[in-house]
Write a structure and sequence with these properties.
Structural class: mainly alpha
Distance between the termini: 31 Å
Radius of gyration: 24 Å
Mean pLDDT: 92
Order of helices and strands: HHHEHHHEHHHHH
Helix content: 40-55%
Largest sheet: 2 strands, antiparallel
Strand order of the largest sheet: 1-2
Length: about 240
């Protein structure tokens, strides 16, 4: 991410024939490319002319990349995923996500800031800034939560974030899509009856024992807002 003219030549020499690199270097000198090296991700097509590639790189015309936002359990997992795909460092991403002013900007909090990211595949530029990425994800979230989905959530007396939290519990409960509506209704009915959800996945999340086959003993006594055996209502945020 701190390229100069020499590092560009080095990277090109690893993928292009010597004659092509020499031609690129000659034209780069004439076009003063050393004064216009732009950070980014550029696709080099087989057989592409050196002048075409030089113009693309000099003008900063990057090649978009596919950013897959997958389902994860924690902010640390999310930041690691993003940091492996874009220029921004994963540590900086998670530090930004944990800032109160950032959470307030998107009307979220420390427990549900992860709902800013709707799992999907997006086209982004490799050097997109963290702020730009978050704004993009916020736009995508608003697009997902269109009028129809928002009205459905309101009819359930739930916010979009609460719907996503309930859905995360159901997803952890079963991988069988045919069973999910039944399980969702069971938990939703418990919410309306002011009963504890008693959802095993939330206890596993609270105790960080995600692969436990059974929930019992000390796990059920975990002092955590995510323990739905001890606390009423939904946990404060999604568990994935």
């Amino acid at each position: 991410d701190n390229d100069n003219i020499d590092s560009v030549y080095h990277k090109l020499s690893q993928i292009a024939p010597m004659r092509g690199v020499q031609m690129f270097r000659t034209m780069a000198r004439h076009m003063h490319y050393d004064e216009h090296v732009r950070t980014g991700r550029y696709a080099v097509e087989k057989g592409e002319r050196a002048i075409s590639l030089l113009r693309t790189m000099r003008n900063g015309q990057q090649t978009p990349m596919k950013l897959v936002v997958r389902e994860v359990r924690t902010l640390e997992d999310l930041a690691a995923d993003l940091g492996a795909k874009i220029m921004a460092d994963s540590t900086k991403i998670i530090e930004t996500l944990k800032k109160e002013e950032i959470q307030k900007k998107y009307n979220l909090d420390s427990a549900n800031i992860i709902t800013l990211f709707v799992p999907n595949t997006y086209e982004v530029y490799w050097d997109t800034s963290i702020e730009s990425l978050f704004n993009r994800m916020n736009s995508e979230k608003k697009r997902f939560w269109n009028e129809d989905r928002t009205i459905k959530a309101q009819r359930l007396n739930l916010t979009p974030e609460q719907v996503m939290t309930l859905a995360s519990i159901v997803d952890e409960e079963t991988a069988n899509n045919a069973e999910k509506p039944t399980i969702a209704r069971l938990y939703y009915n418990r919410l309306n009856l002011h009963m504890p959800l008693q959802a095993d996945p939330t206890v596993k999340y609270a105790s960080r024992q995600h692969n436990a086959r059974r929930v019992r003993g000390k796990m059920l006594q975990a002092d955590s807002p995510y323990n739905t055996y001890r606390n009423m209502g939904l946990p404060p945020g999604p568990i994935r």
